[in-house]
Amino acid sequence: MNHGDNNITVIDEEGNEQLCEVLFTFDSDEFGKSYVLYYPVGADENDDEEIEIHASAFSPSEDSKDGELQPIETEEEWDLIEEMLNTFLEEQED
After folding, report:
1. Can you say how many angstroms the Cα of residue 7 is from the centroid of all Cα atoms in its chain?
2. For 38-86, how does the pLDDT look when each residue is reduced to its tens digit (9 = 90+)?
3. Which of 18, 84, 28, 79 is nearest to 58 (CA)?
4. Rounded to 5 degrees, what angle do the CA atoms 80, 72, 64 make?
5. 36 close to 58: Cβ distance less than 8 angstroms
6. Looking at residues 87-91, what average pLDDT do you find?
7. Which residue of 5, 80, 81, 83 sits 20 to 30 Å from the alpha carbon of 91, by its own alpha carbon?
8. Does residue 4 carry a pLDDT above 50?
9. What is the pLDDT of residue 46?
10. What distance in Å separates the CA atoms of residue 82 and residue 90, rounded to the nearest whole number?
11. 3 backbone dihedrals φ, ψ, rounded to 5°
12. Secondary structure, 3-state, 21-84
């Protein structure tokens, strides 16, 4: 994962690179991980479609430039992410 200002490049299972925009990141003491929520760049330009938001755990590298994305492994982590996303979206509406 490379991050620019608010963008990251995500490489999928087939090795394709996709530029994504970071929605937000947060840390979880409970799981001892950091998480990033993101969506493909340009997805917010089409108002008719719902944006598919992706989430991954990540470990920032020492220099904080690149990090390693990791899959979300447990139901508890997904519940936490969903809760954080709902809170974030509610704050955006205000």
Report:
1. 10
2. 998 887 676 667 788 999 998 766 655 566 889 999 999 999 999 999 9
3. 28
4. 95
5. yes
6. 91
7. 5
8. no
9. 64
10. 12
11. -115, 135
12. EEEEEEEECCCCEEEEEEEECCHHHCCCCCCCCEEEEEEECCCCCEEEEECCCCHHHHHHHHHH
Tokens 């990251």: give the residue.
8
- Cα–Cα distance measured from residue 33 to residue 19, given in angstroms and rounded to the nearest whole number: 23
Question: Are 54 and 36 contacting, i.e. CB atoms less than 8 angstroms apart?
Answer: no
Residue 10 has pLDDT above 50, yes or no: yes
DSSP H or E segment with residue 85? helix 75-93
Residue ranges per structural domain of the chain: 7-93
The pTM assigned to this predicted structure is: 0.79
Is pLDDT at 3 greater than 50 in this prediction?
A: no
Residue matched to tokens 């979880």: 28
